[in-house]
Amino acid sequence: MLDLTGKNALVTGIANNRSIAWGIAQQLHQAGANIGVTYLPDPKGRFEKKVRELVEEPLKPSIFVPCDVQNEEQIQETFKTVAQEWGKLDILIHCLAFADKEGLSGDFSAITSEAFTKALEISTFSLGRLAREAKPLFNPGGSIVTLTYIGGVKVIPNYNLMGIAKAGLEMTVRYLAAELGAADVRVNAISAGPIRTLASSAVGGILDMIHHVENVAPLKRTVTQLEVGNTAAFLCSDLSSGITGQVIYVDAGYNIMGM
Ligand SMILES: NC(=O)c1ccc[n+]([C@@H]2O[C@H](COP(=O)([O-])OP(=O)(O)OC[C@H]3O[C@@H](n4cnc5c(N)ncnc54)[C@H](O)[C@@H]3O)[C@@H](O)[C@H]2O)c1
Fold first, then answer.
1. How many angstroms is it from 53 CA to the middle of ligand 1?
2. In the chain, how many H helices and how many E strands?
3. Quick one: which atom of ligand 1 is closest to the CA of 39?
4. 125 is in which domain, residue-wise?
5. Is residue 2 part of a domain?
């Protein structure tokens, strides 16, 4: 049985009720996990308010802290709080990404060094950075799950800069899995089909991508945040104890199609 009772799960990347991280947090909570939430702070506190209102009642998070992955102090404070409140960590959900809009349409060769550096720091480097802080806190049997997209393996129109970030992220999963395996901590990625969210709306032609998947995928539809959440819950549970370093497709089967 899928049971996460007594496990401490830190979930990053909830922005609103469309976020994939929100689907994941709900399924982890339903399976019995104790939830901690990080949010991306903004100067006016709007994100904090929005995320707090969304998660407070249904999830009753025992940790709720700001964590901009470009902010060293906030990263360290986040894991200090985890150590103080929980002592130990079992689950880390890395469900965040960012690229400037100009990196998500037009010519790939037009991507600037500044846009490249920012996108890779937030979307790729952050997985290893958070894992470094989490490593000493993990219980044996721990699990890290991140989110990727097929645009990191094959060319998807407009995905451009994020394609490079996701390719790097998938390789980061393998290197981290090799490092953390000795401590019985597993690291996997879910490659989700296209879902309408704040982040995906920045990708040029996202609706066309979704319609294409609805036409071509074996299941003739795309997937939901909760379906991704179910697979995340499995990957965080003992049911998947033999799986690490993998990219699991939750995409209604789209990735198997050649035409
Ligand atoms: N929506 C899709 O179609 C799709 C498909 C496959 C993979 N993904 C991946 O799923 C993950 C979640 O995206 P989503 O689609 O749910 O969109 P979303 O906009 O709901 O989530 C993106 C999150 O990234 C966070 N973020 C951005 N910059 C940050 C920073 N500097 N520090 C900390 N957090 C930061 C945002 O606050 C937000 O919560 C991303 O990695 C995305 O690439 C999305």
1. 19
2. 8, 7
3. 37
4. 8-251
5. no
Q: Which long-range contacts (CB under 8 A, 24 or more apart) does 26-29 make?
A: 26/58, 26/59, 26/226, 26/229, 27/226, 27/229, 27/230, 27/232, 27/233, 28/4, 28/91, 28/93, 28/229, 28/232, 28/233, 28/236, 29/58, 29/59
Report the domain count for the chain.
Answer: 1
CATH label of the domain that carries residue 60: 3.40.50.720
- Residue closest via CA to ligand 1's atom 17 equals 199
Please identify, by atom number, the ligand 1 atom nearest to the C-alpha of residue 166. 43
Distance of CA 240 to the CA centre of its chain: 18
* Structure tokens belonging to residue 216: 């071509």
Residues with CB under 6 A from ligand 1: 13-15, 18-21, 40, 67-70, 95-98, 122, 147-149, 192, 194-195, 197-200
Is 122 within a domain? yes
**Global confidence as pTM:** 0.99
Instruction: Tell me whether residue 167 is in a domain.
Output: yes
pLDDT at position 204, please?
A: 87
Domain membership of residue 256 (yes or no) is no
Q: Is the predicted pLDDT of residue 210 greater than 90, yes or no?
A: yes
**Interval 168-206: pLDDT, tens:** 999 999 999 999 999 999 999 999 999 999 999 999 899
For residue 90, what pLDDT is reported?
99
Tell me, yes or no, if 39 is annotated catalytic.
Answer: no
Q: pLDDT tens across 138-174, in order?
A: 999 999 999 999 999 999 999 999 999 999 999 999 9
